[in-house]
Specification:
about 450 residues; alpha+beta; 2 domains; 7 helices; elongated; disordered N terminus; DUF7096; DUF7094; Fn3_arc
Length: about 450
Amino acid sequence: MRALPVLCAAALVVAAVMGPAGVVGWGGGVGTGGSADPGESIDEPTIDGEVTIGSDRSSGSAGNPAARITQTGGIPQAESNGTDENDTRIHVLGPPIDRATTVSIAHHGASLGPASRLETTETTAEIGTAEIIERVSAAESARGRERRLVAAKNAIREAETTLYERQHQAIEAHTNGELTDQEFVIELARISSTAEVLRTRLEVLNALASETPETDLQTESLAFRLTVYSGPVRDYAVETLRGGASPDRIAVETHADGMVLAAIDGDQYLREVYRGDRWDRAAEGSGRDSQRALDRTLSAYPRIDERSGSADTLGTGGVTRVTVPFDGGRLRTFVSAGDGDIFIEHQQRDLETFADGDTITTTQDGIDLVVERTYPAGPVRVQAIDRTGGDPIANATVTVAIADNDSREVGTTDRDGELWLLSPDRPHRVTVVDDPRVAWISEIRPTDLPRVPEPSSESE
């Protein structure tokens, strides 16, 4: 168990814009931070300036034809040409099409309360493991040890079912507005922490079984199933709640059968998707599952194979995990037996791999402002350059306003004049304030989601 860090501040800060289903809040950044009140409104005057619509500012290419930008009345607009023939973006697993969702981006910082609850869960579980060891060791015969080991394994199997139900209930409660972002993320962190403890307990049971004649617990399937409750964003959330990672914002999107989580951690973009409607928990595995899962993954993510290293598969009990490292990141999928659907996606990517997207630029008040768009909950780079000297503008305040909502500060630019945000899913305004200068771009619309096809449209 990790030592609980000593924290001077005990408050978990939540600064979210919660709206109706399908509405995303403002994004989070990885700059040097900001001290303004998140709820403070910053008025931007209307400044005359030229808005340049482009794509890759380094190459001057024609850009991504799947989500090209046009200009209508001086306001950047996004349009889709309905094709992705030349789209080089890596696909992502999204929520079901036409399914009502609740989307927001909330600020989660280190908090003594949630961290204490995580540690209490682990401590209680460790005490429970010690009691099992004592009970098994006290058995008077090998047969008695075996019965107690099997009973302990069955208890873990029931606990896994409980975790599945807890996760489903948490997703449903967040979708219905019964759980806040903070409460939802904390519950996911506790579920992930509990699953890790149960995996450790299975290892202890296997060690005890190896010392018991003619006893094979066959825990591989159960241990592997417990891995579905972890992921890069949940791991990041756990570390943030414990104070081990820098506080940042987490994008949360839920619907009745699943969730999408995204975060920016340092120089990496993290994405985690769970689709319960694609997981057949009753399906049995077969000898051809590994190759089938690999083929399905490479088919669903066609750009991955072109830039990847060697992939590996691992699976048992009706679930196969596929890991595909690629230049600048890693993709991991969990594929269900039965219909062979991908029901979990984990992506970890260097932020720089997103630096070739659609760009919108403007020059106002001596500031060259560049915003590189991406899909909802994807990473957006904002860059501010001094028009006169060409130097990056560091420590400039960056704000985001969703639709008609007030502007909210999301961070400050770093020494390179950059700040990475998580994209809202609605038209929004990005403003850079280098007092007394101000530059802004309105009506920025996210690009289309480079979606993994739904099962009905996937080819075998």
